[in-house]
Each structure stands twice: as structure tokens, then as C-alpha cells.
Amino acid sequence: MKLARNQLTLNGKTVSFTDGETILTLANRMGVHIPTLCHDPRLDPVGACRMCLVEVTGFNRLVPACTQKATPGMEVITENARITRHRQTLLALYMTDHPQDRNAVEKGAPNQLLDLAEQYQAPLNWGRMLPIRSARDDDRNPYILFNADLCISCARCVRYCAEVERVSAITLANRGASTTVATADNASLLDTSCEMCGGCIDVCPTGAMTEKMPLTRNHKPERELRKVRTTCNYCGVGCQIDLNVDDIANDGRGMVVKITSPPPGTTVNDGNLCVKGRFAYDFIHHPDRLTQPLVCNENGELQPTTWDDALEKAVNGLQAVAKRYGADALGFVSSSRCTVEENYLMQKLARAVFHTNNVHQCAAT
Amino acid sequence: MAGLVNTFGAGAMTNSIGEIRDADFLLVIGSNTSEAHPIIAMEMKRAVRRGATLVVADPRAIWMTSIAEKHLQLKPGTDVWLLNAMAHVIIEEDLIDHKFIAGQTENFDAVKQTVADYTPEQAEQITGVPADVIRWTARRYASTAKAGIYYVLGITEHSHGTDNVYALSNLVLMTGHLGKPSSGLNPLRGQNNVQGANDAGASPVFYPGYQRVDDPAARAKYEKSWGVSLSPTPGLNLNQMMKTTGNKIKAFYVMGEDILLSEPNVLHLERALNNIEFLVIQEPFLNETSRFADVIFPAAIYAEKDGVFINSERRVQRVRKAVQPPGEALADWEILVQFANRCGADWNFPGPAEIYNEMVKDVPRFAGISHERIEQTQHVPGLSGIQWPCPGANHPGTKYLHADGVLRGKGLFQAVQYRPSMELPDTDYGLILSTGRTLYHYNSATQTRREQGLSTKQSEAYIEIHPRDAQKRSIAHGDRVQVKTRRGSVHVRAFYSRQVRSGCIWMPFHFKEARANILTNDVGDSITGTAEYKVCAAEVTKLETGKKDTLLFPGAYFVER
Description:
The complex is a heterodimer of chains A (365) and B (561). Chain A has helices at 23-29, 81-95, 102-105, 112-119, 156-163, 199-203, 212-216, 275-279, 307-325, 340-353, and strands at 7-10, 13-16, 53-56, 63-64, 75-77, 144-146, 171-173, 180-182, 209-211, 226-231, 240-246, 255-260, 294-296, 302-304, 330-333, 359-360. Chain A is of the alpha+beta class and 365 residues long. In chain B, 60% of the residues are buried. The longest helix of chain B is centred in the first third of the chain and has 15 residues, at 161-175.
């Protein structure tokens, strides 16, 4: 079979690649799944975890799909007995110093290493090593917890911090089995260049980097929560976020217990979030929330009342002013924080119901 | 907004956020991107990592300058000088796009004449940016094919904000950096739905989709659609409403804004609010303004309702209800429907999708977008959501504007002359005060200050002051100081910072116990009414010596210890 200059065979099928494309990107594009641990499309490939090794005709050894560029005429095999045996061995080695009890491990985020070990039926009886990575248990930062026992040194967090957020607040330290994720002088993240974007949590495959709050509050693990895709309510980038909801909590009204980002490449934010988008959600269920309409009584105090009464007083109040001074004595202030539909209704209320164009919002620059 | 509508024909980012990573030259002006739009900053970091040239023009040495090729540290409010001088260089060295100017623009000669006087040498005197740096930037901008400009409120929050936007538009038009990927002129929106609120017609001069209220044809269309007669007179903009509160304006219906924290010169507004007859507020929390309210409606927040937001790049995206609102709180749209019907209207909307459908019926550029279609984009490869213009159900949406010619028909050059900011330093008030947002808080901070973690990082109001200015006033790093302007004063901590220029101070506006907007000047831009939050004259005096050990400051690595 004659192949064109930009073609190769992937599991026996002829496919076209683009210049500079790696085997992994090509396979993903073709819908062929290759397991990875250290890879993330936002990061430079490093070929560290060895999970993505595949067979390429002409190479004696298996090659990492994430770093190997596609070349013309290459014959790539992504699944066979040799590759499976390699993955089982690799996972068994990873598991020797990794906790195996899923309930204990997945209090927060799901653990991809356990998933893979299960999928490939990796032997778990190769003896146990005690994890000897050091943590920073006294880090007083409010959001990010590093559970060293779950770390597999894939350095996704460190590379994200350096390559995407570009603050390099965390680094790999020590060697061999002691390799860990540290900060300069083991300082708290609060005292480093960290901007608390939480990207390290997002990229971590095992939940070693994890969000503190849902753990300290004993919320359900992520696997048991319902994810609702929505748009972040802070700045104008329009990041897509997944509200992780516990439907039973909060007397059945549901509770947002954490926020996670959608996978990279699917939304405008490419899987990234900032400190506010990822962590500042406590206001949603804050006790200060208004739960009843309020009206001002004769003494100038705000009193709770019924919707019926509040609506009637408000309508009468505005209509009386319109009657006395004309509709242009009314001002309608809409909001760039509310939805498009609500802004439409606010301007329609001003224009069609009260006959004034005095409607604006704070951000018309 | 109005500026871009006038020059290009659409007030929005010309290009998309996803294109930033492929740009080869980025001019970031009046945008503290890494703090105000961290995700867009990540795209810029990615471009720089790829080898793109980043130039930051900002009075402060913000984080982005640490990865920039050049930092143009101009004096606040002198943007027109800088930009006109760049135009001067581009014309003088004949780096203009003759074909684009001839075919797609009008009024170029007026600009050519005006900027002839704006030499880089004189610009250096006024802006403080060296002439050769201005020249270098102009050359690189004009001669790079994929060159984009990104700006935010540092450009618009001036009494000459629209002039600034015109000066930027001129640069884009004369170099032809329009209607192409990774280029254009890109205002980054500060709130989740600024774009959507403007698009939906929350404006004194525009119906939905920027159809003017004083255009008889547009009015006739809406009179027919809504079945009522409509006022032909443009309304007051927010700045005008605030200034005439108590006189012209006798009652307000305020949805989702804390005007007493967000609007400039708030002490004046506070006195005026005593003189109005009725105030209705619709909010999820009590705020500063609610002290004056006659009626408060408890509103649901984004996690408790359905609808759409439109982001900076014109992408219409869904907001989905995840949990029930607390107590009897209702979604804003539900309250508005009930309110209108009590006033005798007959609004019958089962849900936001139906409201949306009514809106797009009269707005061709959204006509192809619906709640259902956005839903479908979730399940196909590519980014979710759809970018307007999208005139039909089979139209894929528009990644960048003006690809088939400038939307206005011809891009309009607008000659602008420099006008100084309205209030400049003098012997009584020797410093320039600018205000802005930080990474850790958001606007009036009703949301972010209810979050323990963020307050750990940044718990109290502060100003950034240059060590030289501070020492002149015997102020040490961390001291409590009084910041005073002609309108009022507040007490804050003073942090030494080399981020600010000497002669300038900077202050976040999030803290209600030290409201920056007691200080700010409420003079508005002549076209948009946007207030001059970025420049006013101020003075700082020491109150008491501060404790040094408790300081937490995000830019602390800039501080001299």
C-alpha cells in the first residue's frame, strides 16, 4: 500500500496527520484512546509517566505517544498484548506506594490511577512501600491541599503553574521516591507568587492536589455530586464552570459544594479558571441572603412582608411618581450581572409599561 | 461601546479570546489583565511563550509587564497623546495599509492632519514614554500581520474615554488590522453580562440590538411588536440619572447594582437619595443602597436561574439552574414579569427561553441563536456557545467581525485632540488617584467578601503609593493614612509599591468601609457618560503607624523591604 506524504497507519488504518502533530494528538483526533497520566493538552509534552507508550514498527522499544511526532509511513499500534503487559507492570509499580482503598482515596476528586489500575487489572500484590514524600501540612492557605501520599510526581501541577499560569509558585523537590511538590522554603502558598487559580487541582490526575473546603466541611466526594454546566458570574470572559451539586443537602433545595472546570478544548476558558471562578462560591448559600421581600415602615425600618404587599407598594410608589412628575422622573437601573432575558424585560418595563427611555446599567463604556 | 459603534459599526470585541494565543503582537492598554481577566491573561501568556511580542501600556507596572517586551508607563490620562504619536509615526514612515484605507474607510485625511502635530518627542514630554519606545511600538504594531489591541476600563473610564477609543480605532483602521484572525480591537468586558445587557437594550438610546430609539423606523417596529406607543426621546444615561437624582429623577427601580458603592462621588449621590420619593431595589443581599430603599425584592443568583449571558467575544452561553433560591427569593425575570403585570401589562412568559425568543424576533443579528441551539453545541467538538452575528439557524456564528468588510459600511476615522483629565494635581492635592479591581475581589464585593479564603489573602482597603511620595509625607510602609479629594476622604493602609508611578496612587474600590468612590470624580464622558474613575487629584496624610507583621499584599514581591 502506498501512503501519501502526510499519512501513516494507526492500528492498521490509514490516517492523515498535520505537520508537527504527535501520535497522541493524532490518535485523540481519530477517536483512538491512549491512556495517559502526565499529559495535558495545555502543557508541553514531557513523556514522564510512560503510560502512553505505544508500538511503532522499526523501533525496538515502545515509544511515548505524547512526545513522538508522527512521521510519514509510520505504523503505530496502540493496543496489543505487549503494550498491555507494559501498562500492567507500570501501574503495579505506581501502586506499590499508592493507597488502594478507593473510599479513603476519593474523598475529593476522582483518582485516575485507581481507574487505570482497575481497567488493566494491574497486580496489586507486588509488596508495599511506605510513601515517603513530604507534604506541607501546616500550609495555612485556604484553598489548596497537597496530599503527598497520593502524588505520583507526574508534575502536571508544577508545569501548569510554570507554563499556563506562569507564576512558578510550586516546584518539584528532592529525588527518587522522595520527589515531592514543594514551594520555596516550604512556605505557605499564601506567601509565594501563587495566585490561587487552582489549576494544580484541575490538572492533578490522582487528587493529590485537592480543594480544601469540601474536605474540611465533609461534603460528599465529587463522584456522588451532580454537575451542572453554567457560565461563571464574575468577569466578562464567560468561563464555563461545572457547579457540583449535592441535591439532598440544604433541606432538599440543593447545595453547590464545589466548582470544577470543564475539560480543556471544549469551552472558551480551555479548562482554566481563576481564584474567584473556582473558589469564591460561598456567597451562594450565605446566611446573609435575602429570603423575604422587605418594605420600609413609618419609622424608616425595613420589615419583612409578603410578595403581594411588596409588589403592590412598589407599583403604587413608582406609578404615583410617574403621575405627579411624568414618566421621565423615573430611573430604571438594569444590571450587567443579570441575564440577557432580564435586561430585556427591564428595558421593556421602562419603555413599554412606563413610557420612558431612562434605562441604563453600570457598564456601557 | 459607543465609540466602537461609531467607528466600526459594532460595540464588541472584534476577535475571539481563542485567537489571542495565535497573535504575534499584542498591545495591552489600560487593562490589568492578569488580575481583572485572568483567563485572557493565560491566553496572552501562551502567545508570549510561543514567541509573540507583548507591549503593555499602563501607568502601573502590573504583573503583565513582567513578561512584556516593553512597558509604556504613561502618565494617567495621556493616552490620546501616546496613541496619536503612534499614528504619527505610522503615517510618517508610510507603514499604513493604503489599500484598506482607500477601500474600507473614510475620513482618513482628518486624522492625518491632526496627528501631524503629535510628534513622539513632544509625546515623551507629556506621557513620560520615551520617543524611541513610541516609535518602536508603532513600527512593530504596524508591520506585524497578526497584531491585536486589548483594552478595558483604563481606556474608557475617563472624561475623554470615547476619544481614547477613537484614537485606538484610528490605529486599527490605518494599519488594516481588522477583519482578520488574531488582530482587531478588543474591549474586554468587566462583568459577566456587560455585552448581553447592552445587546438586550438596557440603554437610554438603544432598543435591543443597537437600534436607536430616535430612529422612527426602529420605534415603529417596537410599537408594533409591543402594541404600545413609545417615547421618541432618548433617556438619561446612568451618569446623568445619578447627577439629577432628587431633581429630575424622583424614583428609581434598581436591579442588581449597589449604586452607592459603584458610582463615583457617592457622598453627593447619598445626599441626593434622601430627596427622592421612591426607591425599589432588587438584590440577593442587603447593600449600601438598601438603606434608602422603600421596597426590596429578594432576588435569585446565577446558580438559581436559567437564561443566557453574552461574554466579551459575543458568545451567547447558557446559565443553568442548579439549586433552589433561598426562602421566597425569586429569579429577577419572575419578579419583573409579576411587577409589569401588576402595572397592567399582559406579559406571559413560561420561562427565559420564551423571553429570549421574543427578543430575537426583532434583532436580526441574534436571530439564529436560541436556547436549544446553544444546548446542542455542548455535544459537538469545538467550543460551546454561539457568537453573534448569527442571522439564521444554519449560520455557524461569527468568530471575528468585519471579515467581509467593515460592518458600518466604511470604517470611520475620528480625529481626536488631547484633552487633559478634568481634575489634575495642584498644590492642595498633589497626587493622581486611580481606582481599579484586584484579583481577589469583585466590584462591590458583596460576593467575594462573603468568602473567607479571599479575605485571608486580601482583607482590608489599601492604597499603593510610590516610596518617594510616601517618604515626602513621612508615611512608612503599612501606616494608616487618610486619602482625601475635593469630594471626601477615606482611611486606608498605605503600601509602598513600585508598581505605581511617582506622583500617582492607586486604590481598589471593593471595600465598603473605605469607599474609593467617595473620592472619585463624577464628571462623565461626553458621549457614554462613563465617569472618570481613573484620574482625580488626591492627597494623602498619615494617621497612625501601622503594624508591619500583618501585611498581606498580592504584589508584595514589588515592595522594597
